[in-house]
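Quick check before the chapter quiz. The format below is the same one you will see on the exam, so make sure you can read both the input and the output lines.
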Amino acid sequence: MSIKHNDYLIDTNILVDAMRGYPKAVDFVNNIDIRVSIIVLLELIKGATSKESLNLITNYFEDLDVVYLDLGTQELALSLYKEYRLINAFDINDALIAATALKNNLKLVTKNTKHFKMIKKLKVISPYD
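Here is the expected output.
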């Protein structure tokens, strides 16, 4: 059964798993409408090691709903980063992704739930549990 609504923001690690053919990830992303932060797209492009892998990423994202950063998201990311940067390996990209999910009222789908558990208002889902 499909969950075809658009209230999920998918983290980089889930998309990497799906692109590598991990069955649980493939099943999850095939059954939802995917939204990704521009930060996730940039992280995936950064990880491309060849022209072929860059083309694969580019083609994969052609039809996806990319959520861009507005001023409010940037300000929230700054606040989150200042508050949580010393906890659970919370880095700048985590702050930007969490802020994107919060500002757009989206659930964050990630394997790295520990990076985000301290943000009480953020709904975090681990799709493999």
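If your answer matched, good. The CA atoms of residues 15 and 25 lie 7 Å apart.
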